[in-house]
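A.,

Following up on our hallway conversation. Structure tokens first:
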């Protein structure tokens, strides 16, 4: 078992569905229950044992840098990388290659809130597992990734934003991952998806279908993709 102590957090997007709420702030800096979404994520990972962070910034990057600095007030080390072109999650991960080196890492989306207890299961990587993709139930798979698993909760297939009636699975991609550096072999070979983006999920599918074991832990407790003002209002109620 490997204990993961480094994380890459994606916080480069504006979040256009948030409308005027992101005129001055990137979406991960919107406050939920008194603090930015990104702070909830960073503190949750820190409390699970993560000490080194790479935050990928882009839109309104200075808002993130000014808030977190070098991480010392959170007793962690934070570095930054800038995503210049918004061309999909597959390309963003490549920005972390030098940071992660030869060690496994957690990857978190900067706009997804999970019950902090879940971070503890994502930082433990069994020796025979190449990657972890967290899953949750009860979400509309047309808004994200439908995850297909075998009876051992291992990834078989992964489909992004399925059209209604297309791929049905009770499992939804919960947007919290752990990878070994082998993921970079698969992101390097990505072709643009029908949406014109390089999709990280395509690389994860290829990894699983290459014969490597990709395990899918089910998250417990609250889970929220802070994607629009309605969800934000519900969380802050």
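Then the amino acids I'd put at each of the 237 positions:
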């Amino acid at each position: 078992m490997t204990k993961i102590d480094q994380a890459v957090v994606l916080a480069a997007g504006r979040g256009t569905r948030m409308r005027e709420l992101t005129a001055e702030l990137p979406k991960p800096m919107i406050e939920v229950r008194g603090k930015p979404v990104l702070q909830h994520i960073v503190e949750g990972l820190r409390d699970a044992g993560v000490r080194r962070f790479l935050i990928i910034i882009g839109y309104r990057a200075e808002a993130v840098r000014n808030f977190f600095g070098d991480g010392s007030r959170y007793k962690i080390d934070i570095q930054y990388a800038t995503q210049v072109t918004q061309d999909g999650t597959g390309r963003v991960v490549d920005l972390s290659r030098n940071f992660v080196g030869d060690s496994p890492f957690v990857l978190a989306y900067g706009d997804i809130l999970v019950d902090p207890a879940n971070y503890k299961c994502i930082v433990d990587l069994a020796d025979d597992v190449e990657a972890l993709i967290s899953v949750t139930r009860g979400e509309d798979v047309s808004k994200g990734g439908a995850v297909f698993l075998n009876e051992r909760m291992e990834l078989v297939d992964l489909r992004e934003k399925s059209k209604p009636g297309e791929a049905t699975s009770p499992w939804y991609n919960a947007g919290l991952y752990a990878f070994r550096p082998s993921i970079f072999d698969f992101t390097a070979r990505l072709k643009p998806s029908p949406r014109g983006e390089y999709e990280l999920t395509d690389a994860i599918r290829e990894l699983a279908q290459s014969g490597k074991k990709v395990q899918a832990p089910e998250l417990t407790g609250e889970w929220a993709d802070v994607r629009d003002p309605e969800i934000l209002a519900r969380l802050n109620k």
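DSSP finds eight helices and 15 strands in the chain. Curious whether your intuition agrees with the design.

B.
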